[in-house]
Structure formats: C-alpha cells, structure tokens
Amino acid sequence: MASAGGVTSAVVVGGSGRMGRLVREELAARGFAVSGSYDVDNVDELDEGAPAADLVVDFSAPAALPHVLAYARRTGAALVSGATGYAPEQLAELRALGETNRVTWSSNYSLGVAALRRATAMVAEALGGWDVEIVETHHGRKVDAPSGTAKALLAAVDPAGSRPVVDGRSGIAGPRRPGEIGVHALRGGTVAGTHEVHFFGTDEEVCLTHRAASRQIFVAGAVAAAGRLLSRPVGFYDFDDLMFA
User: Fold this and answer.
1) What is the domain extent for residue 19?
2) Residues 198 and 224 occupy one common structural domain
3) Are 208 and 227 within one domain?
4) Chain mean position to CA 188
5) Tell me, what CATH number does 26's domain have?
6) Catalytic pick from 67, 138, 195, 210?
C-alpha cells in the first residue's frame, strides 16, 4: 500500500475504478493527505501493518467490508462508506461500528438526491392513496440492481416496508394490487444516474426526477461529508444528518 505524509490521512477505496480515482483527486484538492488506496483484490493489505489513518473513504464492494471494519476498529479511523449492494446484516454491521467510530453510509452522496428523498417522503405522505412506481437508469457496467438510491427512495415511500414490491411485469400480470410499488432498473450507455418517482392518481400524475450529469457530484458530496464527519463525535450519521442538520 502506497503512503504519503501529511496532517490528515485517508485510505481511499476503489483504486482500480473511476470513482476511486475521482475521490482521491478530490481529497487531495481539499487538502487531505491520501496515504494509500486499495480495492477488492488487495483489501487484505488493510489487515496487518497498514498505517493508521484518520479517515477511510470506501467505494469498493460488499466483499471488502470485513477488512474495512477490522481496519477501522484497529485504528479508530472515521469511515465514509459509499459502497452499494450491501445485505441488511452488513448495513447493521456498519451501524454497529458507530458505537466506537465516526461512521456515515449513503447509497448516493448527491445533495440533489438527498433533497429528492425528502421530497419523495413528503409527497408520499400527501398522496397516500396513489400508485407509485420508481424507475432508475444507470450505465451498462453497473453490477447491482436496483440501485441503492432506488432502495432509499422506496424506503422514503414505504418506511415500514409493509407494501408489496414488484421489479417487473410480464405476461398476464393481472391488475395492479392495492398498495403495490414498482421498482424498475434500466441499464445502458454511459448514464451516470437518473432516478424517477412516479405518483399516479386519477387523471393526474406527479413525477419527481433527479438526473446526474457525472459522477463528480457523488465525489464532491462524499468528500464534503468526510470533512463534516471528522468534526463530529463518535456515532453513525446519515448523509442528511451531516449535510442538513
């Protein structure tokens, strides 16, 4: 693992991917000292001997999580996690780390998406009897579906998780079930990310939409969250807590 001197250190994940490179560049531009990077194929370098850092920014993959958690516990590093595709028990592990470390996790570090989640919750409450469909679109190389952001929007519509969810319809699907929420994933091209929440009533529709023109918005949000996280006491923080509280 490469290292460099500096006052504040950061271990940045995703060294072989575009997101990791952009995060490293943004951290350096904002005065952080990037002490090293890793990805899924060499994350075991964190297990022993990796220098202690103040901060871990993790955009790798769920498979790296045990190593990232062990490193954070050993060093006391703050953790900004943006990896998606976590199982519920893995998200529970991230939250549990907040008992000893400063931690934040978000499926999307865009301020616009954070505002979209808030707006979605407000509209869902106001239009409680309307049909809801969530559509997300990403580039063809994205490996998980639906996106973490789509799942967050689903939670904004149905916080209790009690409504039936479908991820596609084909054949004789029958009439729409009462309360059903559709969540649909589109893949293709170089789309950075588009999320739409459709509310259908009688003779009218409300559609909330966010379009990402590039990954840079996620990078800027994650690094801004990192700066705020380092000033907070130990605990688990939602992105909204850090940026809007």
Assistant:
1) 9-105+216-244
2) no
3) no
4) 20
5) 3.40.50.720
6) 138
Please check whether residue 50 lies inside any domain of the structure.
Answer: yes
Please state the domain count of the chain: 2
The verdict on residue 2 lying in a domain is no
The encoded tokens of residue 35 equal 């002490």
Question: Encoding tokens for residue 30?
Answer: 């904002």
* Residues linked to residue 209 through DSSP beta bridges, in sequence order: 196
Which CATH number belongs to the domain containing residue 162 in this structure?
3.30.360.10
CA pair distance 133, 148, nearest whole angstrom: 16
* C-alpha closest to that of 17 among 46, 69, 56, 59: 59
142 is catalytic: yes
Residue 223's nearest CA partner among 17, 28, 2 is 28
Catalytic pick from 142, 151, 184, 198? Answer: 142
pTM for this structure? 0.77
Q: Could you confirm whether 139 is annotated as catalytic?
A: no
Q: Tens of pLDDT along 91-133? A: 999 999 999 999 999 988 999 999 999 999 999 999 999 999 9
Under 8 Å between Cβ of 140 and 187: yes
Distances from the Cα of 105 to the Cα of 39, 78, 86, 93, angstroms: 18, 11, 11, 11
- Which residue type occupies 165? V
Closest CA to 225 of 211, 213, 241: 241
Sign of CA dihedral 61, 64, 69, 72: negative
**Does residue 175 share a domain with residue 221?**
no
Tokens 């103040």, located at residue: 54
